Amino acid sequence: MNPKLQPHHSANRAKLTLPEPAPALIDLYRVREPGDEEGIVRLNRNERQYPLPDWFVREMAASITSELFTNYPITDGFYSQLSSHVGLPEDHLLLTAGSDAAVKAIYHAYIRPGDGVVMLDPSYAMYQVYARMFQANIIAIPFNTDLEIDPERLMARVKPGVRLVMLANPNQPTGTLLDEEIMAELHSRCESVGALLAVDEAYFPFSRTTVLPWIKERSHLVVTRTFSKAAGLAALRIGFVAGNPEVVANLFKVRSVHDVNSVALLAASAIVAHPDLVEEHVATVEAGGRVLAERALGMGLEALPTHANFMLIRVAKRCSPEWLVEELRKAGFLVRGSFREPCLKECIRVTLGPPDLMEAFANCLAGILARHGHSGGIV
Fold first, then answer.
1. DSSP state of 112
2. At 232, phi and psi to the nearest 5?
3. What is the residue-wise DSSP string for 259-312?
4. 169 and 84, same structural domain?
5. Residue 16: is its pLDDT beyond 90?
6. Is 343 left (phi over 0), alpha (psi -120 to 50) or beta?
7. Which residues of 194-207 are buried (b: 16+ CB within 10 A; e: fewer)?
8. How many helices (H) and strands (E) does the chain have?
9. Is 20 part of a structural domain of the chain?
């Protein structure tokens, strides 16, 4: 009998084993994003909450060709356009698959096992995930219950052994903003200890505050941006990182080949060509935020100031945040909560949208509180 055709008995088979993952991944657990629920409004992911203009969608559709799908993307033209848009030379810029890919590249290129990474707590969850993946020493600076950071404590932790200060500004999920004086001092501290200051500006221009122009004069500064938030292109995964040309060259070394796709380049180019689209969206979100803040106040809730496209609302004096999140889900609205961090445990987080949507959400919220006996004569 042909030996290749002989029965393969398990008793004679050597035990098969999979290779162990990298040690840093063994205890790392990540949860998949849940899928859509039909008929539900997602106010939990900080996405654009209403359609892009019809003319924009038609313009995109008219530009779709077969070559856009069959050919590898060409980035040269968009690099030139982006360079003019942000006022930085092309060698100071690197396109990435959203700002998240830029953040990962910074860790990949610069973090060695045992290096210190300073970050705010809470902040974007992937900062800690990447720190663990690359075996860094996480140095977390907590917010107090008023959502404030102690600047002296922050500065004191930037010392020899720290390789990276990773900040979202505005921060997520707090919606808070560190001022320019603190950012300038942080850069000086980073320069003195040989660290990078990486500023994730995913929520610019809702904040109207940026350190991007500092790139030309501050060599230890890196800024990441995305087209997911104010530009509304979350599904297309495109962003960029800006920094000293030497830093950008190192980030280029760890990038994936053709990591930014042609459809994303097309849409981002159109956004840059029509900056009024972003300005109008920011104004709409701000108007919606004013509506929600006023309605929340009328319900005896506390809407916290925000510099982003989401709002924290303290609800614990009226009801349990966990209970409210579930009741809102049943009523057709997904929001974030509950939070484990002490500074957020009384809050829910709501993505902001146009005033009519915020009115509808507020009406739903008021109805839930009233129906379940939590109105206290306020709603």
1. -
2. 75, 25
3. -S-HHHHHHHHHHHH-HHHHHHHHHHHHHHHHHHHHHHHHTT-EEPP-SSSEEE
4. yes
5. no
6. alpha
7. ebbbbbbbbbbbbb
8. 13, 12
9. no
Q: 349 with 218, same domain? A: no
pLDDT in tens, 349-376: 999 999 999 999 999 999 999 987 644 4
- 186 and 285 co-located in one domain: no
Provide the b/e sequence for 268-296 (b: ≥16 CB within 10 Å): bbbbbeeeebbeebbebbeebbebbbebb
| Residue showing tokens 């097309």 | 266
φ, ψ (nearest 5 deg) of residue 256? -75, 155
- 57: tokens are 């969608």
**pLDDT the model gives residue 299:** 96
Residues 6+ apart with CB under 8 A from 346: 314, 315, 316, 317, 321
Query: Are 247 and 264 in a shared domain?
Result: yes
What is the tens place of the pLDDT at every residue in 109-156?
A: 999 999 999 999 999 999 999 999 999 999 999 999 999 999 999 999
